[in-house]
Amino acid sequence: MSLTPNTGRRRWWRAPLATFVPAAALLLFLPGALGAQLGAGVARANRLEPTSNSMAAVSEFNAGLLDLNNVQTVRAANHLRRSVDADPSLGIARVLLATVATDLNVTARDAEFARGIADAAKASAPEFLLASALRARFKNDFIGAQSLLQAAERMLPNDPSIAYISALNVGALPGSSYAATIEPLRKLTTSFPDFAPAFNQLAYNRWRSGDHAGALETVKMYVNQAPNEPNAHDSFGEILMLSGRFDEAVIELNKALDLDNALIVPAQRIACLRVIEGKGDLARTALNAVLPRAATPGVRISLLNQIAATFMLDGNAKLAMAQIETSIAEAQKANMVMSVSSGHATLAIIDALIGDGKSVGNHLSMVGDGVTAIDKAYYSGLAMALTKQNAAARSAVETLMHETMGKSTLANARLAPIINGLVLINEGKANDAIIEMNRTDLVTPLTRAVLALAHAKAGNLGLARSLRDEILGDRGLALTNGGLVTARVLVKRIT
Question: Lower CB count within 10 Å: N or C terminus of the chain?
């Protein structure tokens, strides 16, 4: 599993929208003793040593950091909670926990960051710098984080975790990308050949750069370095899956599940693989097998929704909708308002796509306030366009544009064109729809799916089939991605 934001998977530095002091400024305001250490260019030869009288706290912190580097966020959070319980003043552990804890609201998380950094400032300069950098990353201040990380690296040149976080941060800098991390990660694997997580991220980034053979070679090194680490087999399985080597991928993904019976992600990958093979029944078998492992209501609801997606891709609207109704009922019991609203929106889209379309309006009326006004307008517009209720779809686009007035957002860059393109196709204006879609960046599968439909209606069957095959052949399928699932359903109409 990759840490990179481009994958759409876990980002343990994800930030809420909040105001904060740029992290680079912290270098100007280091507490006296720490500032003196940094100014003197202190560079210890050892790795980060958390300041604590509790051996248990230090041990749990180290275990948590290792799990986090291996993208095991739930396990990491458990270790870090035990670390903080053993020593409440271990600031670096508290800050790291604040980056991964899922049960904190914005106010509580900011309070944990503030307390952790204050405690780290009383410990050592490297702890203070790393704690401040982690908070900066979480709040998307990647430039400030880089200054802090570089300072920490100078003080602890033999610490692979700091070098790893710094390398990942390079790819998040403005104007940068995952490709910029390849050389720092390659250097890291040379300097610290026993630091397994670096091989994981390097493998993914080599794959994205087009070096598929190199990616496979690198991920095998990750497995060799960490044969008992579930994420190593999960990553190997995913890259094998992307390579089209499905049978080998399933073997590796099952190894990950065998090593940690609390894992969900490898089973989700197996389900996606089976869907690509056209074996929806086997996809549901994989998801149902891990359903009892769901650690939270949110995880269980996500799995139920993914099972619904497999029915949807099989063309079985009735069973897909029944599954979503079960998901909504469980979300209501757990008081998960957003999941309830999203569930009703999903019912509207499924009914519009592969149902009879008669209940779309009823489903939309039950979406409620659990989603944003932008999302509500988009769901409404998409459902109306799919059922050829063009006036209502255009009205939804007007609402969408009003909600995003004066803003540069994905809503007006991609979402509105999707609805407009479908309406133009409905009105027999396929060439106008092609022009509309080509104004977008065509990054998402759904924008390309609408373009494919427009080409099919315009008689450009070669272009339409090429886009169809591209979408259906995408081995990066994620059943949690509603737009991708919708795109696959739409392009199956092109013959």
Answer: C
